[in-house]
Structures are given as C-alpha cells and as structure tokens.
Queue: 3 jobs
Job 1
Amino acid sequence: MDLANNEAATSTATKTKGIAEYLKSHLREYGLLFALIAVMAFFQIVTDGTLLRAVNVTNLLLQNSYIIIMALGMLIVIVSGNIDLSVGSVMGFIGALAAVMIVNYDQSVILTILVCLVAGGIIGAAQGYWVAYWRIPSFIVTLAGMLVFRGLSLWLLEGQSVGPFPKEFQILATGYVPDIFPAGIGVFFAEMFDARRVNTLALFTGFAAAGLVVWLSLRQRSQNKAYGIEDEPASFFWGRTLIIAAALIFILFKLSQFRGMPNVLITMGVLTVIYAFITETTTIGRRVYALGGNQKAAKLSGIKTERLTFLAFTNMGVLAAAAGLVFAARLNTATPKAGFALELDVIAAVFIGGASMSGGVGTIIGAVVGAFLMGVLNNGMSIMGIGIDYQQMIKGLVLLAAVIFDVYNKNKSA
Amino acid sequence: MTGFSAWSGPRTAKSKDKIMNPILEMRRITKTFPGVKALDNVNLTVQEGEIHAICGENGAGKSTLMKVLSGVYPTGTYEGEIVYQGKTADFRNIRDTEDRGIIIIHQELALVPQLSIAENIFLGNERASRGVIDWRKTNRSTEELLAKVGLIEPPTTKVDSIGVGKQQLVEIAKALSKNVKLLILDEPTAALQENDSRKLLDLMLELKAQGVTCIIISHKLNEVRYVADRVTVIRDGMTVASLEAGDALSEDEIVRHMVGRDMTHRFPEHKRTPGNTLFEVKDWNVWHPEHTERQVIKNAAMTVRAGEVVGIAGVMGAGRTELAMSIFGKSYGRNISGTATLRGEPIDVSTVDRAISAGLAYVTEDRKSLGLILDETIRFNTTLSNLDEVSTGGILNHNEETKVAERYREALAIRTPSVFQKAMNLSGGNQQKVVLAKWLFTQPDVLILDEPTRGIDVGAKYEIYTIINDLATQGKGVVMISSEMPELLGMCDRIYVMNEGELVGELSAAEANQERIMSLIVNE
C-alpha cells in the first residue's frame, strides 16, 4: 500500500519536474505571450474596457501596421547579424515620393506604388552593398542612410506637407474588406450578440484562422512526436494553442462589430505568414540564421554570405517602402517629419521579441508579438492620458527589461 | 633559418660553477580541462640567472604550463604547488605574477598597434601624477629601456609601423619596465627572420648577464642549444626529461625525448591499396591577406591518390592550415596562384561553394569558431553545406533533414539524445563527428581534415580514425593535417613535411618516423 503510494508520488514528482524543466527552458517564448496578455489585461482594467472596444482594436492594428511590416524585414536584418537604422527615414522618404508623384505630378496610384516599392528596394540594395561587399559596419552605413533620406524627404517636400491623396490611395490604409455575405446574416449575428452590426466575413475569418492554427499546431506536434523531439507537456500545448486561437477569434469578433477587417490587416497577416514561412522552411531563411550564428563557419560551409547580407537589406528597403505607403495613406498626407525615430520602435519590437543583438537568434512571430506589446503599451498609456514623457521612459525600461531577461536566462543556462 | 645551425654558439657566461639556487619550482602540477588532462604531475625547476628552455611537440602542454605559472589559470584551478623565490605562491591573476616580476611574452604579441612605443611600454603602468601622464618622463624612461634592448627608434613611433622583430623588443622593454625577474618567452622567434632571431637571442644572453632569469619555449633546437643552460622536455602533459645543456647535448637527443612514446593499439588496423592520382595541386602560391609582401605558401605541390590518406606534418605557423584554406575556395590569403586538378581535370576552387561542388571538403582545425553554428541543432549543422539535397525549389523538407541527420548520427555514432540537441551541448568528439557528418553529406571526393582529433579524448580519437579509414576504403582521398606525429605515422600512407610555407619533404609510410619528420621540421 505504502509502496504504491510512494510510486505514485514519485511519478507525480517527476511529472511536475518535467513541466518545470520545460517551462524553464522555454521561459522566453511563454514569457512574451504572458507579458502581452498581462499588459492587455492591465490596460483593459485601468481604462475601463476602452482598450478592447471594437473601434480601439481596429485602431491598434492600424497604428501598428507599419511597425509590424518593417519589423518583419528588421528581424531578418538582425538575425543576419546587422542592424538598419535608416528605416524610419526611408519610410518617410517613400511617403514623400508617393505624395509628390500623385499630388504634384498626377501619376496613377498603381504606377506610384510600383515605383515606390522599387525605389525602396534600390535604397536597401545601395546600403546593403556597402555592408556586404565592403564590410562597412551596418550601423555606420544605415546611420548615414538615416541622415541622407531624412534630408531627401525634406528636399522633396520642400519642407511642406503634401496631400491630400485620392481615395484609391487612401484605401491602402483606411479601406476595409467588404462583407461578402448577405446582409441578413450580419443582422442575425448582430441580434445574437446584441451588437449594432456584425461583419460576417470578419467573424468567419476569425474562426477559420483559429481552426487553422489549431490544425497546424496539432500537425506539428504529431510530427515532433514521430521524430522524438522533446515535446512540450500536453497542458502547455493546449493552453498555448487555445489562447492563440481564442485571441484570433476575439480580435476578429471585435473587428466585425466595427467596420470589418482593415485592408492593412490582410496585408500584415499575409506578409507575416510569408515571412514566417521563409525564415522557418526555406533554404534562404536557413542560411540567414547560419550567417548570423557564425559568419565564418557559414562561409566555410559554402554559403554566399555577402549576397545574403545584400538581399536582407534589399528586402528591408522594400518593406520600409511598403510601410511608407501605408503610413502616408493613413495620415492622408506626407510630412517631412513622417517616420521620425520610428526605426527605434521597430528595432525595439524585434529585440523584445527575443532576437539577439549578435545575430542568429529570433523569430518572426516573436517580432510581431513584440511589436504588439509595444503597440498596446503606447495605446493603453495614451488612453490613460499619460504624458509622452512618461510613455518614452516606460517603453525604454520595458525594452531594457526584456533584454536583461534574455541575458539572465542565457547566463543561467550556460 | 638556413645557416642558423652553422652558428658557432658562443654560449657566454655559462653558469656552471654557480651555486644552484632555484628561483622557481613547479611541483606536481596537474591541470584538467573537461575531458582532457593537459598537465599530469609536471615538475619544473628553474635556477636563478639561467636560461631554461622548454621543448615539446604542439599540444604537449608547454603553453598550459606557462599559463599556470603566469596566473592566467589562477591558483585553485590546478593541482600542485608553485614555489617562487623560496615562498609558496598563490597567484590569482596576471597582475599578481607581474608584481612579483614574472612576465610572459606570448607568441601573439600583446601590443596595441595604434599606440606609440612609449604608450605601449607604460600601458597600465603610466608615468603619471594624479592621472595626468608626464610625457617627458615617459619618453625619457622609454629611451633608456630601448637602449637596453638595443632598439633605435623614437619613443613616439607607432607600433604598427615597425616590424615584428622590433615589436618583440618593445615587448621585452615593456617587461624590463616592470622590473622583470623571470621572463618567459613563448616561441619568440617563430615569426622572425634569421638576423632578428639572432639579435633577440643575444639580448637574452645579455639579460642573463644582468641577472634576469629566462624561460624560453621553442621548436628551433639550434636556438635552444645556442642560449639555454638547461632543457626540460614535456610530452603528453608530463615532464619526460630535464637535461643539462652543453656540447654533450645533441639536438637528436632532445628530439628523441620529445617524440618517444608508446604507440601500440592507438590506431585501428588498416590495409589500403591507393589507386590512381585523384587530386593534385601544383605551383600553389599564396600571399598573406594583410602583410601583402609576405608569401605564406611557396610553390606547394602535392598529390592525393584515390583511397589514400596523406598527412601534412609541421609546427604551428608552418602554413598547413593556410595551404588547406587557400585551396578550399580561396578562404585564406591573396594573390593565390596555381592549379588544382581532380582526376586530371582542372577544377574551379575560387569560392567555397564551387570547391564543394567540385568535390572538396575541408574540416577546420577550429570546429567551434569555424566549423559549427553552436547555437543550432545537430540537424541544422548536418545539412548546412548541402541544403539543395533536402529541399525542393528552395523549400526545406524538414522530415528529410531529420532522416539525414539520424542517418549520420547512426553511421558516425554521434552520442546524443536526439538530433535536435544544440551543437554547443555536445562533447568535443561528438562535435567533431557532426562537422564530419556535414561534410560527408556533401559527398566529397577529397576531404581535407585539419587537426581532426584536436582536443578530443582518446576513445573518440579512435572512432575518428576508424571513420577516416572507412573513407579511404570507399576510394576517397583524405588529406590529414596534424601536429601529432604519432597520429600521422599511424594513419597515413604518405606524409608531406611543411616548414615556413614550403613542402620541404615527402616520406612514404615505410620511411617515415618521428625522428625523420622532426629533423625535417627543425633543421630543414
């Protein structure tokens, strides 16, 4: 009898220990998710529910869309062992270019968008060229770029704000995906949820995305099991997966009660999925991690490290251009100040998301969550009416805390 | 180095009649690193006012012993006892030893190239009052010190504008500024031309006359015979001989002590019948990447037959790694010229990926900083050089990758709970196997293995040797660079000896032995 008891006790003990060990080794990933939830819960309470009101959730997404778009490129640049300080200026410059083309020279929206994306690519390539082939530290090259493109936007706009944009251009940022379902269904749901209106497409998309996440996670888990990868405990797996799924449904449910899904959300979502795929499952993504992890070893393994660095910066330029277009469309005007100091928010998001300054470490999802964490902080503090002075200080301390947490974890495990 | 042996050594001021008075005794020093015993009960006694040479092969433990002595490894991290000037010494760091007058000058000079001679000499020891440097005093003292070491340069000259030989003298002047009593020189002449070497050795003799005790680590036995009063030989982390220098002591005798060891059953049996010439390098010339006037590889020519294991022997800095890396995608040096052929056809080795697709593989001597992405998994590292094989249209097949990694884990007996283990968590031997797995997965014809068994334990070494034998049996050509001569003798069908950038000799397995290789290395 005693013996059986003992055995049961030991097995529970080992099980608990297993979970504790697992949590310890994956503290970073869970920590980020918990931090986001905790911060949201905090602001939801102190703002009396304003944070998660439909209109504010929509706002939150729109406000952070350009940061997230740039964070995708920045993650790759940072994983490759570099940094890009010029993205804020480039973003501003591209917005200015778009404004001048459309407003001053009456060019078509499509042509403008194409020219702007190509221009972004060329800017990125030009900076990447010096970094990759001349081995000039990226910090210096992009610091120079930051000044140059800030100056160029001033020159291009002649110090003035240029706007407004035509409707077709504004749609980029302020448009919403129309509800394809018959209005009757929306009315039915509206009555059911006691809401003013419901966008059925958004609601269904939420459920579809949640289902997709659960399905993909399950598939990954079964594959891991088949190959004997150290697997997370079932409780954690389901906890994590269901929280993410629920969050997706919740967000889209909220959106459906306002004006539906912003176009930007679709752009952002699609880009995030594409870049997550590139970093995790393509040879080029794999090589970027190798390059950042150990450049010499990567080179001696036959990886064309220079070309890869060049491409990382080119890609960053294109994404900065895309962000610039979205930003200009959202403000409906291009100003010489657009994008000022924004590179710091982007870089902060990537580091909060767990990327390492020395390269080789970091994930797309981490960067996106990091950006949202910063975004919620910004938004929540603004709703509370906290001054910009305190906001800056608090954001700075959050960044420092996140990185200290990383370093502490790493030292402890070493 | 030619002509060096012709020196009629004027070993002046021999301290034969002096009363023996040890300045330093290191007793039963044992130092272990994870998995390796670097020093095993080493004893070293140095008499006051003598020049004491320490000889031994690469990896014998000479540098480790000097690091123990100079406080790089503080007291408590090793076993044994150091008695210095009659007192038991507990050195906690380099500062401690320098305060007591023990100064070590490393092979890699520790000067700041952008600073002047004077600034370097008094770095950390500035002639200053309340933090403000007294430049007149600094420069005057520097001039005095430079006069002592026989270097005629203004104190304000930047260190990077003088040659290595003069830099060496600056290091010694720096040591003198700290009231050195025991000066340790680690391979001081390795990078020097002959007349600079001679100047340096004469300076040592002069310092000795002034009462400074010296320890010199050197491979160049003629130099050892020229300056040393006593010679201690270290082999495999143990003291094997302590010899009185003098006319009776021949270089051959030192060599015999350096290499003599039991060699039974350290290498797996192999029977090989090499086929036709597989890989050939001709007229290979390489210049130093920074010091562009220095030629690092001179007219090297070598062949490797199918199913053959070819060794390259030589001391550190002989140019073996430089030769290998310059062949493998021109990863080292500039102005590389020469031809490389595989089965008689010229191959393009101008970049690493071209060298790989031509059929070459190079396993680096430094697996941690050049061979592996330590933060990543075994699977990641295994497929890294041949991602095309596990992807379609640039999209990786993770399952296929896992299969490949598992296959090599089994084939090479990589001991790990799973292929998803990070490379940094593996032991040295297993890390080396992962690097080998990476290169075997590229299906090479010729493998260049640079120090393939460095820093790994005996059991793992045996396994690596077995893998090498298997590769040769499969008809691949293997080039093996090693500083451990017994390893070369036990494994190779043919051995090239390299010295100062040249392949100075070629020995078949039958004619090769340690004495012959060593004499090719030390005498040329």
Job 2
Amino acid sequence: MLSLDIAKNEVRHLFRERTFFLILSVFILITLASTYIGWSSQHTVESVYQQSVLTLTAAGKNIPPSPFSNLPPLDIVKNMIIYVVLIGSLLAITIGHAIGTKDQKAGVVRILFSKPLTKKDYLMGKLISMSMVLFAITGVSLIISVISVAILSQISSALLLNLIEFYAISYVYMLGFGFLGLSFGLMKKESATALLIPIIIWVLITFALPEMGSALYPTSSLNPVLPQTNILDSPMLSAIHNVLYPFSISEHYKVLSSLTLGLQQTTTTAYVAYPPLISLSILVIWLLATLGVSVRSVSGFDISRGDIYE
Amino acid sequence: MNNMLTIAKKEFQDIFRSRTFSIILVLLLVLTATSILVSTLVFKSQVSQYESSLALLLSMGKTPTEAAPQLYPLNLLRGVVDYIEIIGAIIGILLGYLSIAKEKNTRTMKLLLSKPITKKDIVFGKITGNFLFVSLTIVFVAAMILASFLAIGGISLTAVDYYKILAVVILSIAYIMVFFTLSFFLSIQQKSLSNALMICFTIWLVFVLVLPQIGDTMDPDNQVPGGFFKSMGFDKPQEKAVMAKFSGYENTRDFIEQLSVTKHYERAGFAIFGVKTKYNDMPFPDILADQWFNIVSVFGLLAAGIFADAFIMYRNREAWSV
C-alpha cells in the first residue's frame, strides 16, 4: 500500500516538472512528425525513381525494378525505431533520474524513513511510478502512430497488432534505460553525475557497440536504412562482431522492431543477426539486468542521506 | 587581466581534478582509437574483397572496370568526427553547467564580487579556463589519432594532412565551446540548475541528433542500402540532373540540416578529412573555400554564445545574488 502511495506521489510530482514536459513534448511531436516524414520521403523517392526511369529510358539503358514498389504499409513509421533509440531512451533516463533524485533534492529522505516504510516499499513505489509513466507515454505514442498511419496509409487489425508489438518492444527497451536513470539517481550523491553515467551507458549502447561490433559509423546508425557492409568477410571484424553483438542491445531492438513492422527487407543489418526469439530474450535480459541494478542501488541506499548536490 | 587569468587557472584545475571529466576524456580517447581500428579493418576488408574479385575476373579473361580502393588515411577519421559531434557536445554542456553550478551550490558568487574582481574577469576567466581544458582534450584526441596511425603501421601522413588535422582540431574546439556557452547561459538564466541541464540536453538531442537524422533519412539516396543512385547505375552528374527536378524537397531537407550546428561541423569536418570522396584530391585551400559557410557558422555561433554569456552575466542580477 505504501508503495502505491509513493508511486502516486512520484507521478504527481513528475507531471509538475517543466523539463519532463519539455522532453515529453519533443517525443510526442517527433512521433507525430515521424509518420509524415516517412510518408513524404516515400512519395518523393518514388517520384525520384520515376524521374530516373525517364533518364535511363532516354539513354536506352536497362531499367532496374523499383526498390520502393513493394514497401510494407508500416514503412512510413520506420523512423520511429530511431526516435525510440534516441529520444525515447533519453526520456526514460530523465524520468528515472527525476524519480530517483526527487526525495534527496527535497531533503525528505530521513523524514520518509522515519515512518514505517521499508526500502522494499520505497523501491517498489519508484519502480511502479517509473513503469506507469513510461507505459502511458508509450500508449500515447501508439495512439498517435495508429491515427497517423490510418490517415496517411492504411490500417487493419493485423497492422494494429504489429504496431502494438512494436511499441511493446519499445517499452521494454526504454524501461531498461528508465531503471538505469533511477538506479544512478538513488546511488550517486551528485545530481549531474547521476544523470551523466546513464547517458554515457546510452552513448555506448547506441553508438559505440554498433560501431565496434558491426562497423556502423555512429551517425550511420541513426538511419533506419543501414549501409551495405560485408564485414564478415574480415575474420578480425567477424570475431569482434561475434563477441560484441550479444551485448549490442540497440541493434537487437532495431532488428526486432524492423521485423514487427514488416521491414526486414530494407532495415535490418546486412550481417548475421540472431533469430528473433534470441534477440527478444536479450532485450528481456537487459530489462532484468537493469532492474537488478535498481534493487542493488536501493539496498545500498543510505536512508540517513541528506540533500543531493547539483 | 591577472584576475581573469587567476580565475581561468582555478577553473582549469577544478575540471582537471574532476573524476567525471577524467571518465569522459578516457571514453573519448578509447572510442577514437577503436573507431580508427574498425575503419582500418573495414578498409583492409574492402581491399581483400577487391583483390579476390580481381583474381576472379582475370581468371575469366575479363578486364576490371573498377579501380582498386585507395587509402586516404584521413578518411579513417569519420568515426572520430562523429564521436566529437556527440560526446564533445556533452562535454561542452557539462563544463558550462558545472562552471556555474559549483558557484551556485557553494554560494560563492557574492563572495567573488566582494573581492577586487570585475564581472568581466569572472565571465572571461571562466570561458578561458574551460577553453583551455577543451583545447587540451582535443589535443589529446589528435595525439591519440597519430598514435593509432603509428600503431596500425603502414600509414604515412603528408604535411597537408597535418594541417588538415590542425584545422579540424580548431573547428572541434569551437564546436564544443558552442555547447559550453549555451549551457553556461542556461545555468545562469534558469533558477533551477537541474532544469538548465535538462533543457541543455533537450537542445542537444534536437540539434545534435534529431535534426541531422531527419535530414539524412529524407535523402532519397539513403533509402536503399548502398545508395539509391548507385543501385540505378547513376554517376554524380546524372544524380544531380535527376535531383534538380526536386529542388523544393532538397532545399527543405537542406534547411532542416542547416538548423543544426552539428551538421555544419560535420560537413566541414567530413570535407577536410575527405570522407566525401570529391574532396580527397582537392587542394586544402579550395576545401576551406568550399566549406566557408559551415566553418563561419560554427564560429559565428560561438561568438554569439560568448556574447550571450557576457550579456546575461552583466544583466542578470539574480546570478550574482547567490
């Protein structure tokens, strides 16, 4: 019961935070924009293809088939995969950080624990609020995507199910980052360090591991259509890939999301990926591991702690 | 002048002692080295693929049409530019934030002014101290680049290559300082330091990652792995001729990219290092002339940032009341 009271209080406080609304607005706006960007790009590239056909015909050359002729209906939301990796996970870190540091910033940790409150209740309250807020945000994004896909393309029960699956995977992915933000918010005595460490982990997962393991340049990993690479031709790169790929959470997330949206032909990595079930298991392990870090952080949490430093 | 230098020295020492920055610096250096290593392995893989294709063609009695991949050492630095874009901006934001946060947390702003120190000394002292730290960080990165080239072996740099590295070093320092001035400004302007940091990270997210991402994904050539025009067998002039019919779309895409300081930095950095192949054999002064707008944009934003910092420190009374 106490856990629920803490959770309610956390959610209420979060919705009073201006900065939370700022990042939330960016995420919602980009969700709105992503389908339009996808739709607009799709129409333009189709026209570019038609124009290229005219040029080839005039030159009397063979005309290759259009690479855009059989695009799946959910192709227009493919950018959302990248926005979850970029904005969604940072939003989750921000929420986790805000929930983790709130009581310390207000200097009420000692008062709270003077009541019949256990560390377990405290952690449960924080975890519930974190999960609920992120669930609500993911739900809003899902509704926006469904409406925008229905307006700009088509929607059916099968496509709706695909979108729900995609957002469920995204929720698991983002929640892991949320738990990290929460853990370091509880662990660290300085607010900036508590925010910085999960951001560094995010940089490593989003950019460094895909580059080291799959030879993807950091900015190339921001494009849902990945460049052609045949890295497995190099024994050394192949060996590095085999070692690092299991830990490359963002790549597993991208592969799984692409599959659920039906984009496997154009957006998955060009090299050996794991079967979907293994990628999904890795995402679940990621979530459990970050949850474990949260449990550990609260077990070592000093209940006599005073204010947190900025 | 002496007071300003004293503040600059104190600022530099504070950062240098901070564990947070040691961690970020080590991270940047490790990523620099691994990025060069991965690029080298990719290049070697391309060469070996070319050689096996060549052997196959020759065994079939055919003549190869494509030239062998040529190593331009600075091309291997694409990942380094990428990391400075992302992590460099984070360093700038944290430096600006901590520079003000430490004064606000310890309530030393008033104390500073009770001494014979002017506001100008404080503002420019802090900017100078942080500038020196950023410069040192980027010099370390440049040293790591040279050390990585040495370790890989078989890479020789020309005098022009060194000038190019120097040019990107200067540009990188200016780029990171743009984020420093932004964060410095917001940390003074906002009542809550946490809010300032979050706003900075939101701006960072939008301008460093989201806007360049939108621009990139709107590029028709990026819609097919390996490039759409390559899949159609088009060369550059043919590609340009086709895209001329879509000037409105291309201008919008370009405008979105131009909104981001990161894209200006990236375009200039990629041109100088020859990541865009057309710059590989272009004389260095011509590259600089071609990229003048991107270079001026980065330095222009830095100048605007310094001006804004000085302005808010002079005008904002609240900044001095804590």
Job 3
Amino acid sequence: MESMAIPGRPDGPAGALPNHRLATFVFLMAGTMLFIGLVGALIVLRYAMPQWPPPGVPSLPLGLGTFNTAVILLSSIALQRGVRAMRLLDAAALRRGLTFASVLGALFVALQALQWSILIGRGLSFAGTTYASTFYVISGAHAAHALTGFLWLGAMALRQRQAWVTDAMQRQIEVCALFWHFVGLVWVFLYVVLYLL
Amino acid sequence: MSEHAHKTPFIRKYIFSTDHKVIGIQFLMMSLFFMIIGGLLAMMVRWQLGFPEKAMPLGTLFPDKLMPEGHMGPEFYNAVFTMHASIMIFLVIIPILAGAFGNFLVPLMIGARDMAYPKLNMLSFWVAVPGGLLMASSFFTDTGAAATGWTAYPPLSAVADYTGVTAGQSMWIGAVLIVGTASIMGAVNYITTIINMRAPGMHLFRMPLTIWALFITAILQLLATPVLASVMGMLLFDRTLGTHFFAPVGGGQVLMFQHMFWFYSHPAVYIMILPAMGFVSDILATFSRKPIFGYKAMAFSIMGIAGLGFIVWGHHMFQSGMNPLLGTTFMASTMVIAVPSAIKTFNWLGTIWRGSIRFTPAMLNALAFVSTFIVGGLSGIFMASTPVDMFIHDTYFIVAHIHYVLFGGSLFGVFAAINYWYPKMFGRMMNEAVNTVHFILTFIFFNLTFFPMHMLGMAGHMRRIADPTAYDFLKPLQPLNEFITINALILGAVQVLFAGNFIISLFAGKKAERNPWHANSLEWVAPSPPPHGNFETIPTVYHGPYEFSVPGVVEDYLPQDRPAPGGAPSHTPSLSTARA
C-alpha cells in the first residue's frame, strides 16, 4: 500500500490525520460494520431460541478461549513495543516487535483451528445448530482477518532488514499496526460475546 | 508524474491505469455496457407482460429449454426480471454514479491531482469487472440465472429446490459480495481524498454539492455494504453448507434476512440517488446562471437523508409479519425523510426561479430529474403509510415508484451528467440537437411507460407474475399492459439516439474548450480532457462554486480559482450567502 500514497500536500487543507492513517480508520469502520452485522445476527438467533446454548451441544473450551485472548493481546503489546521502537529509531527492536507479534498471531490462528477441530470432534458440527453456525462463522471471519494480519506482520518483519526504516515502510507499519490492534480489539469483544455472555 | 505520461504503454494507460479519469471512464463504459443488457432484459419482461400469448421477436434464438418456440416460461421470466433489477442496481446505477462520476469528478472538483490511493482505485475497478461478469455469466449455467427477485429473500433463495436454480443463485451471491468489495475500496478512497486532498482554500463549505453528495454516498457505502456482505455470506452458507441461519427448521430466522438486507439496501437506495442530486444541483445552478438556493441547507439535507436512511429500513417489511408497533415507528421515521427531500426540491425550484435558463440537454435532463423525483417522492409517501401500503404492497405501484426514482431520478441525473461532463471527459462536444430530441422522446415515453403502472398497482396487479392473463380479475387491465409494453419498446429504441451520439461524438464531435458551459467549479479550470495530473498548477480556491451573475464582475460567472473583484479574497463560505 505504501507506494500507492500521494501524501497530502503541506499547503493544502490536509486534515489532522495523514492519508494512510485516515484511510485505515475509514476502512476499519467498514470492518467494524461487518462484525456488527454478524454479532447482530447472533443476538437475533440467540433470543429466538428457548435455551442458549441449546441442550446437548458440547460447551466451548473456555480455558483455551481465554488463553488465546491473552495470546492475541500479548501480540498487540509486542507490536506496539515495536512501533514505539520505530519512533525511537531502534530498527532492531522494531524487527523484534514485528516478529513476536507475527509469531503470536500465528499461534492465535493455530489455536483457533485447534479449537475448531476439538469442537468438531466433540460433535459441534458447523451446520447442526444456529449456535454452532454463528460461532464458527464469527470466529472464522475473525480468524480470516487474523490470518491476513499475521502474514502481513511476518512479511514486514522479513522485509525490515536495514538499520533504518524508510518513510514508505513506516507508513505501512503504522497501517498494519492499526489493523492488528483492530483485530485484537474485535477479538476481545467477540470473546465476551461468544464465551462469557 | 505527468511528464512521463506520453510514453506510458497502452496497457498501463487505458487498461491497468491508475489515473482516476481513466478509471472513471472505465466504470462508465462498464456500466453503459451492462445498461444495454439490463435494458434488453427489461424489453423481454415487457414483451412477456404485454403479449404473453405471442412469441417474442427473436425469441427463437434462445435455447428451447428457456423459451420453447419463442415463448417465455414462468421460470425463465423469474430469472429475467431478477437479473434486470440486479444488473441495473449493482452493475449500472451504483457503479455509474459512484464509480464513474465519483472517480472522474472527485479529484477534479476538489483540485487534486489524483485520488489518495490510485492503485487501490484501479483495484476497485478490476474487482468490479469479474463480479459483473460472474453475475451475467450465470445465465449460461445449467439451471439458469438467479430467479428470486433482486432481494433474494429466503427461504426461496436459501434452498435450491424452491426455484430450481442451483449454481446461478450462488454465483449471484458471490457477484454481490465481489461488487460490494469494490464498492468499499472506492468508498475508502473517496472519503480519504475528499477529507485530505482538497486544494488550498477549498473549505468543506466551498465544495460543489456534487462532491458533498459523493462524500456522503461514500460514507453510506462504507457503513452499509459490510452488513450486506455478512448477510450474503450467511445466505451462501445456508445454500451450500446446510446451515440454518434463515431456515426456521433449524432455529433460524427468516425475517432476520429481510432486516439485514434492508439495513443495507435502504441506504443503497440513497447511494443510487444522492450523487444524481448533487449533479443536478450543479447543473441547475450553471444553466440558470444563479447561485444554488440555500447551499448549506442543501449540504445538510444530504446528510439528513443519509442519516435517516439508516433507520427506515423496516418500511420495506410492513407486510412481512413484523411487529406492527415496529411498523409504526418505521412509518414515522420514513415520513421524516420527506423533510430534507422537500428542502432539496424547493431549493432546486428556488435556484431556477427567475434565472436566465439555458435549455441545454443537460439542463433539460436535470429538470426532468426534479419533476420525476417529485412524483416518485410523493408515491413513496403512499407506501410509507402502513394502512395504504397494506393495499398496494407488492403491486405494480411499487414498480412504478422505483422506476420513477431510479429511472426518472437517477437515470435522468446520469443523462444530465453525461451531457454536462462529456466535453471534460472526452474533449469533444456531443450533438445538442440529437440529445434534445433524445431527451424529449425519453421523457414522454418514460412517463407513458411508468405512469400507468400506478394504475395497474391500484387495481391490484401483482408484481413478479409471468402471465397477467392467467388471472380473471386482471384481464380487463391487459390493454393497459399492452400500452405500457408498446411505450417501453419505443423508450428502449429511443436510447439508440443517445448511444449513437455518444459514440460518434467521441470521434467527430466539435472540440471542447476548457469551460464550455461557463461554470465555476474546478474541473473547468483544467484542460479538456485533463492530462494525467489534471492541472497545470494546483488552483487556489477563493470562494464557493455558485458565484453566478455576481454584481461587479464582467462575465456572469466567477470560477472558484479567480478572486472576487475589489481586493481581498472572500473568506465567507460563498459570496452568495453574504449577498443574501
């Protein structure tokens, strides 16, 4: 995305945010609406059922879910430490942050996949109940975002080899960081909705 | 960037171009291509309704399975009207307004060299194209194209056996998802560009109303389309993976689909009309040689319509079995939309009131927009009222209404916009005489086609039936159906004038000067057609775009980049408000 930007000219009435941050926030509003749509459907389907979860379905592994929430939050923290290092011109620490964030992100997605396979093994089939379908669709939509995020983080960790950070790279890292924090934040919200409520 | 534009290879310049103007023209061509397909489908629908017993001309060219001996069967009819609506909505009106004119006009009118993200812009077009082709190609699958109406309500759409359409419906869902993705990419770009890339002096309240309309439209697209994506995704799972999101048998909720679908599709109605309202505002002011009446009221009423547009979706569902109390609140919120709409209408009238009107084809089409929008708006109030809707729901009254706002509104707006911006897009003028004749005939036959549909609806003629003669109580209405069909066929034929003029003028039209209409907004400051990078130097903006007939100025217009006479540039949003 970095090469696409024509930065706002300094003499123009450019807003408080540079293009890349503004565009990312705008894009994440669309992402928010996607999850609002899905969670909205979950709420409707949930209150249409006399009992939620329906009797006889295996329960979600709360421990694994909680652990995984911690994983993605740690990943966000690692990334933020990297971004702070970038502002302090510490390219090595930046790369460390990107790598840790990406690895933790990969762990998150792997644990989500493990969780799905455990649940399918216990008989929570995708199409069986609306309880299962909504869980799989919502966590799956989120995992697709997380997959994109950790691959992107990993690619940047590999590309950032020099002792300096180019402007274009810096912009891309900022965009990716906003996206990754969004993925983490959405998961915290989904964790509450899917596991706790 | 512009210095190496000359040696850009063909494929980078015209096919995978990142220039917003080329992308805009690509969207225009794509939409016009699909408009031909959608229009031909409409002709087929009308033939079937007018003359269900006669074989359709050229009908024998279709495979026997679809049209045995040139007669359309009810299954094929379902696919034809479904695809007519889907193509016109998703592949014509939305991409031509937001994609074509949005791309072409946004950077030019705000004084930028290009979009904030030119490559994302290119991607948006090249995502939209396969989406469109996927939808259109579903006709060629074994079981034909989607046949559930463009609203794709489950359970009809969720179970393949109900319509007999297997792959076609799923391809339709996929196409909607893909086109929606393109739409979101475009919206991100427009919003960023309009907020961040305006020329010096281009305050928000100095932007032309076209830009205000495109800006608000982009916000609607951004926030509404993802909800459509979520509901279409669930529908696709119901069809292919056996989930029960919308199937009561597994605990699903049929009505939830309608709620979520209309949560997108009602704002989408405004996505399909707000940009046209913006074009018309600019065109009316230019050809009346007067400032737009109530500029800020116009901008705020666009926001009002868009904001209210998110809380009225239930008015599509009065007859769905939804809680009647909910229906009443949706009725109230819907009626409130009449307020900003009326503000706009009266301000348009105030704009042309006692103006020095020039009846160019663009102006004529803009005036047609205003008048047909009033008819469509008023018939909307009938349906917004729950007791009346109970009677006219799902009849030809709604068909008349949607065509008064989408053809009479949006499409006349598109004709106006093409007439108006054609010189800027292609550097040549269209033939005005031909386009005037095209306008007059289109306006007459548009009304003769769609106005009688109100009467059909009042008489109880259901929509989406393949053969009106199969119902005894509709038999007396058949002459009216035949009348509509004849006018519709002429309406379709008349469009050849416009298409021919469009194509011939590309090569043989008179060369256009920079500012053929003597308008004020920044696109007219750039050469016609503007080169890559748009402006020789980025203009500085001194006032709003509606400074027509300003006292003390020799000409009757004052471009935005020219300071008002008498010293210091005005710092008020526009001179017109100061004068008023």
